[in-house]
Write a structure and sequence with these properties.
This protein is mainly beta and 61 residues long. 7% of the residues lie in helices and 41% in strands.
Length: 61
């Protein structure tokens, strides 16, 4: 995921802004981290460069 894409993303649950936390980055691409919503408190993982914005109940299915 490119860091500049955070400006285009919103929480899929409440539509609020997301905050990016980077754990691993390579060549300007975020490989792992989280997208956090301060409004509803939900956290969405970034794994292998792909943000998982599914609701929590659908992530583990």
């Amino acid at each position: 995921m490119r860091p500049d894409l955070i400006e285009l993303l919103a929480c899929p649950l409440c539509k609020a802004e997301l905050t990016l936390t980077v754990v691993d980055e390579e060549g300007g691409e975020i490989l792992s981290g989280t997208l956090d919503c301060a409004a509803c408190g939900e956290t969405f993982p970034i794994e292998a460069g792909i943000p998982n914005l599914l609701p929590p109940e659908l992530r583990e299915a």
